[in-house]
Amino acid sequence: MAPLKVLMVAEKPSIALSIATVLSGGKLYTRKASTEVHEFDGMFLGSHAYIKVTSVVGHVFRLDFPPAYQDWNASNPLDLFQAPVHKAESNPKVHICRHLNQEARGCGHLVLWLDCDREGENICFEVIECTGFQVNDARRKVHRARFSSVTEKDILKAMGNLVEPNRNEALAVDARQEIDLKVGVAFTRFQTTYFQGKYGNLDSRFISLVFSSLFLICFH
């Protein structure tokens, strides 16, 4: 019987290395890619498996407005609250989404080792989207590892207690990100326009920076 093929994804490269080192007993092969990929033969769910461990570098995607709303002079700040938003890669030069899609090919299991908070849960679903896996797909299964540290004890415990990712927590982060984007950009544009009208010689980039900082302090 052919071994299972498993892809594991952590939130950053150092965590991926720690997980791979524990699960492989230190016997692994590492190759370069958008983020390093650690490969080894091991056991997964009681069966022999070929395992790959790689990582993202935080959020794969960010929210933004479409081009029609990017021009400050073409849209009213109030219109931004009803404007559509779309997701774009956070670090397009790193090609994380393409990297995950390539590494997932031929794999029947995806194990998500993202941080155990709402942000981590949101990144779980970003990874799922990039890899082409589907939650509740009987042929290609998605697993969520819940852990509090990257010690050998916690990693092995997480492997023995895999669960499903929590879509509701991920959606809560989507909602918060959209609110942050719309309120933050509308507030900054309104204040920038207001102060430029009173003090025309002020640099708009400076005003935008100041009020973006104030928004983050006040609402986070």
Automatic annotation (TrEMBL):
Q: Does the keyword Metal-binding apply?
A: no
What's the EC number here?
5.6.2.1
GO cellular component terms, alphabetically, are: nucleus
InterPro entries assigned to the protein according to its UniProt record, in alphabetical order: Topo_IA, Topo_IA_2, Topo_IA_cen_sub1, Topo_IA_core_domain, TOPRIM_dom, TOPRIM_TopoIII
One GO biological process term? DNA recombination
One Pfam family per UniProt = Toprim
- SUPFAM superfamilies associated with the record: Prokaryotic type I DNA topoisomerase
Q: Which UniProt keywords apply?
A: DNA-binding, Isomerase, Topoisomerase
Q: Indicate the segments forming the Toprim domain, all copies.
A: 5-150
Please give the catalytic activity noted in the UniProt record. Answer: ATP-independent breakage of single-stranded DNA, followed by passage and rejoining
Q: Spell out the PROSITE patterns in the cross-references.
A: TOPRIM (PS50880)
Q: Could you confirm whether the keyword Transmembrane appears in this record?
A: no
A GO molecular function for this record? DNA topoisomerase type I (single strand cut, ATP-independent) activity
Record's family?
A: Belongs to the type IA topoisomerase family.
Per the entry, what this protein does is: Introduces a single-strand break via transesterification at a target site in duplex DNA. Releases the supercoiling and torsional tension of DNA introduced during the DNA replication and transcription by transiently cleaving and rejoining one strand of the DNA duplex. The scissile phosphodiester is attacked by the catalytic tyrosine of the enzyme, resulting in the formation of a DNA-(5'-phosphotyrosyl)-enzyme intermediate and the expulsion of a 3'-OH DNA strand.
Q: What is this protein called?
A: DNA topoisomerase
Q: Which organism is it from?
A: Citrus clementina
Lineage runs: Eukaryota, Viridiplantae, Streptophyta, Embryophyta, Tracheophyta
